[in-house]
Amino acid sequence: MAVDKLAFTGSTEVGKLVMAAASQSNLKKVTLECCCAGSRIFVEASIYDRFVERSVQLAQARVLGDPFEPKTSQGPQIDQDQLNKILELVESGKTEGAKLLCGGKRHGSRGYFVEPTVFAEVKDGMRIAREEIFGPVMQILKFDNVDQLIERANGALLC
Questions:
Q1: Domain 38-154 carries which CATH code?
Q2: What are 29-84's pLDDT values in tens digits?
């Protein structure tokens, strides 16, 4: 089967693999888009506590289930490997000192559901702030001024 072009949306790591594989075949055209999931959120110090509180309320109100059901606000992860990766990153957040406010566990015993998870007191050097999680894990980081925010955001290894 001839493939004229590949399109991929996801992590930088997998994007590089897709591009390398395409270049080794027939140098087909490749379109790559980095994921822009908003799991790492910078919040100004003056509203940080209120933002964190409201984020926890909204996370706890989410309905997990079949994504084709209208009442569902969060479906499962794609497979066991992704579920395990998310839970391992959650554990690293706890180990490195981020404050787990809600979630952080597998939901139920069927499917690949992860509870909506919110971390506060996240530091830039923590693994959960440096790696793409691709799951329902929110990391809330505090900033004091725009210059600091720009420097920190640009220093991340994410897309």
A1: 3.40.309.10
A2: 777 666 665 678 999 999 999 999 999 999 999 999 999 999 999 999 999 999 99
Active-site residue identified among 34, 35, 102, 159: 35
User: Is 33 one of the catalytic residues?
Assistant: yes
Residue 36 annotated as catalytic: no
d(CA 86, CA 53): 23
- Amino acid type, 60: Q
Q: What ranges do the domains of the chain cover?
A: 1-34, 38-154
The residue among 65, 73, 85 whose CA lies nearest residue 127 is 85
Within 10 angstroms of residue 41's Cβ, the number of other Cβ atoms is: 14
Start-end of H helices in 30-106: 48-61, 80-95
CB 134 within 8 A of CB 11: yes
pTM to 2 decimals? 0.79
Pick from 50, 53, 54, 55: nearest CA to 40: 55
